Amino acid sequence: MRFTPRCLVVLVPLAILLPLRATADDLPPYLRDRGPGQRTSMFGTYVEKKQLLLYTFYEYYYDNNQQYSPDEYGGTSTTDYNAKYRAHEGLIFASYGFTDRLNMEMEASVITAEFTKDPNDTYSTPNKIKESGLGDVEGQLTYTWMKETEKHPEIFTFAEAVIPHSKDKLLIGTEDWELAFAAGGTKGFGFGTLVASIGAEYAKASSTPWDLGETELGWLRRLSPKWRVYAGLEGGGTDELALITEAQRKLSNTATLKMNLGIGLANSTDWAPEIGIMWAFPAGH
Predict the structure, then answer these.
(1) Is the pTM of this model over 0.90?
(2) Is the pLDDT of residue 4 over 60?
(3) Residue 199's beta-bridge partner residues?
(4) How much is the CA Rg of the chain, to the nearest whole Å?
């Protein structure tokens, strides 16, 4: 399941060898950081009309206090404990801009995950669980209701669905359909571009199906024609919070190296580094 780092060894040098042509910066100042594209679920990433984005990347998860209750893993208690969790994940993401207001994306992964129970847990939870195979498979549809201008922000909504699979696997399976709905906005300023969103999620298999969905408050800044940086806060439910940092290095007109690090602040993965290559194919050009 660790094919993604090996792919990057090939893809990064290939992308660096591709030519990087100078382009005229004729965008209005409020689009300086992000360009003319529409929002995607990848931080600091926007897709243009008739453009295909393809992102292959690797992510590692390191968590020493993943909250769980023994009854989730065959135990006999609902008391909360903290497990050790490690995972290697290779992912592929694709997004296509049908118009300048509507885009769709898909994401799938393969993953190897390992769970080690809390030593204080004496309720028949397995000492260690290790699983590998297909990870999350999901799709998202985003619509832009209002395009950004000098005076007002861009307003968007999106809907997401996670497909159920491998229901017998405790760590990597998805028991039933998971749906999410959110709305947000983006606005460019002299100090950078701000993006914010908030939503709700529905998980049919959960004892409390409806919950607060993913929230984002982020800042994006283009430092030069080749470099962009992102920093933001991402929340999930009512008690999860992570700091997200990312550096993007444009390698050519079609390839961008993305280097991301998620840092858990509250009830989220302690460390989640990510690296990959984003390929952009402007079908309409």
Answers:
(1) no
(2) no
(3) 182
(4) 20
Determine the residue type at 145: W
Domains assigned to the chain: 3-18+27-282 (2.40.160.40)
Nearest to 133 by CA among 169, 175, 161, 176: 169
Distance (Å, rounded) from C-alpha 217 to C-alpha 184? Answer: 10
106: closest CA among 164, 42, 61, 43? 42
Number of H helices, E strands in the chain: 1, 15
- The residue with tokens 């903290």 is 82
Tokens representing 19 are 């030519």
pLDDT tens track for 90-149: 999 999 999 999 999 999 999 999 999 999 999 989 999 999 999 999 999 999 999 999
CA distance 241 to 115: 21
Which residues lie across from 163 on neighbouring strands? none
pLDDT in tens, 227-283: 999 999 999 888 899 999 999 999 999 999 999 999 999 999 999 999 999 999 985
Instruction: List beta partners, residue 282.
Output: 51
Q: Flag whether pLDDT at 22 surpasses 50.
A: no
Q: Cα(120)–Cα(79) distance, rounded to whole angstroms?
A: 11
d(CA 236, CA 216): 9
Composition of the chain by helix, strand, coil, percent to 5 = 10, 60, 35
Other CB atoms closer than 10 Å to residue 190's CB: what's the count? 7
Strand pairing report for 102-116 and 128-146:
antiparallel
